[in-house]
């Protein structure tokens, strides 16, 4: 139980003892300013209003009932202003809490008492093309939430809804077939992978071929038809194409330290068989109607300002199905087969209307029960320095693979500049962690829903709320232990919270699980980044004010402070791990 939950229980007990109705909340919050309590209970005002009494008088009664409840936990309870109850925590108690977290494998963070099946839909690249920066945000934000919810004990089911179906695949497999034939004629030993070495170039070639050569275009069209009717030869080519393309994505996931693998891929094509029956069902329910030869669901819920319902086409005139149809089928699968309690979609804000339409139809058709949580967790666009969507200097899309290579290179230069006593292989390892960590952290530390500017300078800075700063804070603690010549495990002394700096840091450390709860609820990883940054900053303040290895420091004080340092390092390490970012011993 974290401090907030503990105080919540205690204050509720005191409230009930004062005859306050059971449904009124305790309203516990961390103190906002020094001198106004470590925590506050803000229940008295609302309760007094509901009961028609004076808030300060009620607060006095609550405090009287709370005092014995908080024996040994709080030192001082004070009433401020109209009836705020300020709670000052007891340093001895805090020291014990810190000591027990420091030695616990999970930092005393309990697993969820009500684990859920959480489906997380993220990354979702289109396999026809190489992954580009547009998929970066979905991939790293989604992965952070997957890691965090898993850490909390939920059953996380990752779903990579890749684009592996649609008309362009006719063109692509026709092109692949030609390339393979050519290779055979040339008796070239190069395998199919070579033909697709650069997916982007391959796509351009196929497109040009399609535009310039009418016979090829006809063939491509006939291949789509054959593919969609299940022709084995076509399916084989298509599968080959998919395998190679997926390999590209998997390499990026590995490079990015993202937990997605082939098992999580469930592409659009896997729902093909469910599309026709789904349309039929929506027709039977009277939700879909024919309009100009197409099957359309009209949604009054999403009507425009003139009251015209929002039309969602689920089947085209010629019989083809759409993105929304596939998403409805995927949603059903997630409900019926995966038993989802919560489905989180990490998709660009520009697809908001699409998601709203899918969710509304799913609710109306009873594909989703009321207690299923459907969440479109939208994010903004990654911008270049010019304030426009991030592009290469020539205006092309930036490939993820190239961006990551550049990040590691730049980080390598920085590390080399800063330190002289590292081997080249150490530098390479650190550069990888710093470079990839910077790209991820700079994204995760921004409010998810906003656009943000991609800047090498700020993400690789050792100052401010950045990956290098956090990783550096971690290495500083490691170096103190090296200097002290002790291992954290060997420290036995009590933790004494003797100074203001130690107390502030201790309370902040004990709030880790409160922060994780909030991040999990709102899917806002930047709150975790802000928290880790605060820890690192409070740690620096503590370090300035509270000498550790200085001559004349009592061994008990030294060990107590070392234990506090150790919990700082473990919290940073755990926090970064939940964000998918690695730490290192030195840099
Ligand atoms: N492939 C899609 C795109 O690149 C993203 C898929 C997102 N997931 C979903 N269930 N629609 O835009």
Reconstruct the topology from this structure.
Blueprint: H1 3-17, E1 28-30, E2 39-41, H2 43-51, H3 55-69, E3 74-80, E4 84-89, H4 91-103, E5 117-121, H5 136-151, E6 155-159, H6 168-185, H7 192-195, H8 199-212, H9 214-228, H10 232-256, H11 272-284, E7 288-291, E8 294-299, E9 310-315, H12 323-336, E10 342-345, H13 352-364, E11 373-376, E12 382-383, H14 400-418, H15 424-444, E13 452-453, H16 456-459, H17 467-484, H18 500-509, H19 512-522, H20 526-545, H21 555-578
Parallel strand pairs: 5-6, 5-10, 10-11, 12-13
Antiparallel strand pairs: 1-2, 2-4, 3-4, 7-8, 8-9
Helix pairs in contact: 1-3, 2-3, 4-18, 4-21, 6-8, 6-9, 6-10, 8-9, 9-10, 11-12, 12-13, 14-15, 17-20, 17-21, 18-20, 19-20, 20-21
Structural notes for this entry:
The longest helix is centred in the middle third of the chain and has 25 residues, at 232-256. The chain is 53% helix and 10% strand. Helix 2 (43-51) packs across helix 3, helix 4 packs across helix 18 (500-509) and helix 12 (323-336) crosses helix 13. The strands form four sheets. The chain has a four-stranded antiparallel sheet with strand order 1-2-4-3. Strands 6-5-10-11 form a four-stranded parallel sheet, sandwiched between helices. The relative contact order is 0.10. The protein is an alpha/beta fold and 587 residues long. The chain binds arginine (ARG). Residues 121, 124, 126, 161, 163, 327, 330, 345, 347 line the site of arginine.
């Amino acid at each position: 139980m974290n401090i907030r939950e503990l105080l919540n229980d205690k204050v509720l007990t005191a409230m009930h003892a004062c005859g306050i109705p059971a449904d009124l909340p305790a309203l516990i919050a961390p103190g906002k300013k020094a001198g106004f309590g470590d925590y506050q209970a803000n229940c008295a005002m609302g309760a007094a209003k509901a009961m028609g009494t004076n808030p300060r008088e009620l607060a006095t009664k609550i405090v009287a009932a709370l005092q014995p409840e908080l024996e040994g936990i709080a030192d001082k309870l004070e009433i401020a202003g109209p009836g705020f109850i300020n709670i000052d925590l007891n340093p001895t108690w805090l020291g014990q809490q810190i000591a027990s977290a420091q030695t616990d494998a999970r930092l005393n963070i309990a697993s969820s008492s009500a684990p859920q099946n959480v489906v997380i839909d993220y990354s979702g690249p289109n396999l026809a093309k190489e992954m580009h920066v547009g998929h970066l945000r979905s991939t790293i934000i989604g992965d952070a939430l997957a890691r965090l919810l898993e850490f909390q004990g939920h059953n996380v089911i990752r779903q990579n809804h890749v684009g592996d179906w649609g008309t362009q695949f006719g063109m692509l497999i026709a092109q692949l077939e030609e390339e393979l034939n050519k290779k055979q004629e040339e008796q070239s030993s190069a395998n199919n992978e070579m033909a697709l070495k650069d997916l982007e170039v391959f796509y351009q070639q196929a497109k040009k071929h399609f535009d310039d050569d009418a016979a090829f275009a006809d063939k491509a069209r006939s291949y789509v038809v054959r593919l969609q009717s299940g022709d084995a030869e076509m399916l084989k080519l298509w599968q080959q194409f998919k395998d190679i393309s997926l390999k590209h994505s998997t390499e990026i996931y590995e490079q990015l330290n993202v937990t997605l693998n082939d098992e999580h891929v469930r592409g659009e094509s896997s729902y093909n068989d469910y599309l026709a029956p789904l349309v039929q069902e929506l027709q039977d329910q009277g939700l879909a109607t024919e309009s100009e030869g197409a099957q359309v669901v009209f949604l009054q819920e999403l009507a425009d300002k003139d009251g015209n319902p929002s039309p969602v086409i689920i089947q085209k005139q010629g019989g083809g199905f759409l993105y929304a149809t596939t998403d409805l089928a995927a949603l059903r699968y997630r409900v019926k087969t995966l038993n989802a309690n919560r489905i989180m979609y990490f998709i660009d804000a520009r697809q908001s209307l699409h998601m709203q339409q899918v969710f509304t139809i799913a609710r109306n058709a009873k594909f989703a029960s009321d207690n299923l949580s459907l969440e479109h967790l939208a994010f903004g666009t990654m911008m270049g320095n010019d304030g426009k969507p991030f592009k290469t200097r020539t205006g092309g899309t930036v490939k993820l693979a190239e961006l990551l290579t550049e990040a590691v290179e730049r980080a390598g230069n920085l590390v080399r500049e800063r330190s002289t006593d590292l081997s080249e292989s150490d530098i390479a390892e650190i550069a990888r962690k710093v470079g990839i960590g910077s790209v991820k952290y700079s994204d995760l530390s921004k409010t998810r829903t906003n656009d943000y500017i991609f800047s090498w300078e700020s993400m690789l800075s050792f100052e401010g709320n950045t990956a290098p700063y956090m990783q550096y804070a971690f290495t500083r603690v490691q170096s103190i232990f090296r200097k002290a010549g002790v291992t954290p495990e060997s420290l036995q002394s009590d933790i004494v919270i003797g100074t203001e700096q130690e107390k502030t840091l201790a309370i902040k450390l004990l709030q880790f699980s409160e922060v994780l709860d909030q991040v999990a609820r709102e899917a806002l990883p930047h709150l975790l980044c802000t928290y880790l940054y605060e820890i690192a900053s409070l740690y620096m303040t503590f370090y300035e004010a509270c000498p550790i290895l200085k001559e004349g420091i009592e061994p008990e004080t030294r060990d107590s402070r070392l234990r506090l340092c150790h919990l700082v390092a473990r919290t940073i390490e755990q926090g970064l791990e939940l964000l998918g970012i690695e730490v290192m011993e030195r840099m």
